[in-house]
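Appendix B. Raw example, untouched.
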Amino acid sequence: MNSIEIRALSASAETLPMLTDLLVETVAAGGSVSFMHPLAPEAASAFWERSLAAAARGERMVLGAWDGRALVGTVTLLLDCPPNQPHRAEIAKLMTSVEYRGRGVGTRLMKAAERFAAETGRTLLVLDTATEEGASGLYEKLGFTLTGEIPDYALKPHGGLTGTLIYWKRIGTPSR
């Protein structure tokens, strides 16, 4: 796993198709990341184009995990919060290629997102994950605190409802 490199992503002819494939694969494997199966590659590509454009505007940071020239995971840090919340950021769309799951890619992505958030003055991270088949174990291992569950929050990619678990983590001292 030492060969995995985490770095910020930007729109490029190389990156966009890999992000598209990763999103389609994640949804097909049951990942609850806001999309339904089957996910058309065009819809996945359009999502990433919008996401990377928002990153270029400084509204978010999209991080990628690379194994050589292969993109094997991603996480997004949402930074565009309301004026009364400049101290927080939200973790979104943590995805690891099915082939790389269980190898620490998600942990490395989350730690990198946390470092970047702290470097930009954020002191609080929030996130949500599906009750069923979500990454709650990973988030708890990384020190996130469960606030609660909202039942029947969203549809699972292959149908049926799932709840969502809401988590938070303080990563610095808040200024008053």
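End of appendix B.
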